[in-house]
Amino acid sequence: MSATEKKEPILSVKNVKKHFQVGGKKILKAVDGISFDIYPGETLGLVGESGCGKSTVGRTLIRLYNATSGEVSFKGKNVHELKGKELKQLNRSMQMIFQDPYASLNPRMKVMDIIAEGIDIHGLNGKKREDRVIELLETVGLNKSHATRFPHEFSGGQRQRIGIARALAVEPDFIIADEPISALDVSVQAQVVNLMKKLQRERGLTYLFIAHDLSMVKYISDRVGVMYLGNLVELADSDEMYDNPLHPYTQALLSAVPIADPSLKNERERVILKGDVPSPIDPPSGCKFRTRCPQAMDICASTIPEWKEIKEKHFVACHLYN
Amino acid sequence: MSKILDVRDLHVSFHTYSGEVKAVRGVSFDVEKGQTLAIVGESGCGKSVTSQAIMKLILTPPGEYKHGEVLYNGKDLVKMSEKEMEQIRGKEIAMIFQDPMTSLNPTMTVGKQIVEGIIKHQKLSKAEAKEKAIEMLKLVGIPSPESRFTQYPHQFSGGMRQRAMIAIALSCNPNVLIADEPTTALDVTIQAQIMDLMKDLQARLGTSIILITHDLGVVAETADRVVVMYAGKVVESGTINEIFAEPRHPYTWGLMNSMPKLNQDRSEELSPIPGAPPDLLAPPKGCAFAARCKYAMKICQEVDPELTEHSKDHRVACWLEHPMAEAYRKEVVEGRESV
User: Fold this and answer.
1) What pLDDT digit, counting tens, does each position of A177-196 carry?
2) What residues in B contact A277, CB-CB < 8 Å?
3) Which one of B29, B80, B240, B242 has the minimum C-beta count within 10 Å?
4) How confident is the model at residue A1 (pLDDT cuts 50, 70, 90)?
5) Which CATH superfamily is domain A2-321 in?
6) pTM, full prediction
7) Under CATH, domain B3-229 is a member of which superfamily?
8) What's the protein's topology in the membrane (chain B) (predicted)?
9) ipTM of this complex > 0.90?
10) What pLDDT score does B339 carry?
11) Which residues of A touch B257 (CB under 8 A)?
């Protein structure tokens, strides 16, 4: 979306770190200095393997975690310094949709109360509470009769719709979707993704879409960031990222995606990574990817690669491009 | 090619408080020696129950084998006693499960879990079994197998645990390996490693594999033949090229259309399958997919279509296949292609 690039970012992340203390003095650097901007109306996809810190990024942005250092500014205000009224306002304009539709809804509350919780807290009683909830249910493709039921009466896809309705209830501008479709069946995934895109068109929402399914991320995102062990390694427009991946990790990740077309089976060149992701408690020196990188050089062990704009709007952190 | 496993008209039900859940309602397929058969379908379609039924892992009651047979080298496994099954399980037919976190015993070392099966089925001494187990760990690509042998599952990563599971499953050289969503819990890069490992081992050991998955991408890259299941029945089966190049059942079309292609235009909407699968407590009278099918005809609501042969390997259960529906089918297919 070229038009949005000229606007001011809605959210700006500068060198954010989130460290956890684990087992005495050990420090787990879940997010270790990442910076990016999100522009109004766009979808930024965030991908990476489990344990790379992508969910921690989402949770730090919305202040479920306090950042260890760095700055998150949302509409010009530092998220981690807000208090009182302003904090309440932030909680309204930034919402989150969670991965597990089974664990993220209170089993003892009716759908009506789950969705209306935010409306009550923020005192948004312009319309009758019930009418508002019904309107939201219809927006996400459910109906009136669902309002008086409990979460266990719904399927995974329906629960995820309830989660979306809950997020929309306070009329946010920015939604963090943390693996919203990973727990769903393929046919239902498409239903939820279509719904999210429709809502974006109608309400001008901005999304941070965290996922590990690369084909879905490409489909939904305008730009995509790839994370590895707490750092962003590459960030670009999604077509550019998939057509012309620069970082060896991105290349490996893309080549590992199975393609549902048997005729391409033998034509594709695959980069299969060896081994597992190293422990974030004791990450490799220099470039953290070097232990699995097929193109690692001497410099990779000693120096941390710089985060650079190689082409217009295409950022990468790799010594191959220095 | 000879059939190693032949499932014929299998029906499995579960008796629950709310009634009989007909989880598998007449499933037939066969597995040829050295080949990979993929079973695909959404959650609740009966693919895992089918695989557990082959291994006779279904607890009866509440489960019940209502009808049908599972022929392994001509012998019917359904009729076998538990004692006879013990000789089959692990030795002739082995299984790896979806969740490597919960399917290993957390209180036993990984080595002991591999040795267990080897001692039971191969009558080796403890020392010989240990040697064999270390060899298996090496085979599945676990570095420093000697020290890994004495470690516990929690000391392994997800990918490593799945490798250990494969080592256990293959330690007795089974003829058939049932892999129930072996890579669903893993990251794509690890998934690629595990699928490669399975293909490599298949080529070396000649194992037949039944791969149960919902990921059509994984199917396209590994399987020889595909069975598509819906609501406890087979709706389409065929070779991999037939299913991917010329799918004939509207449900198979739906599955393929719901996934974005890597070159999909972002302004185009995905076409999901509307609605949800039927409740198998009371399966619908006609075709189970009719309620979600764009092309459903009157007869689809009334009578369940039989699995009919389209070509030698390609079978489809859909009324569109009926000679009387030929003109309508043509219209449907043309409409589908023009979109």
Assistant:
1) 998 888 778 878 888 899 99
2) 157
3) B80
4) very low
5) P-loop containing nucleotide triphosphate hydrolases (3.40.50.300)
6) 0.84
7) P-loop containing nucleotide triphosphate hydrolases (3.40.50.300)
8) Peripheral membrane protein
9) no
10) 57
11) 190
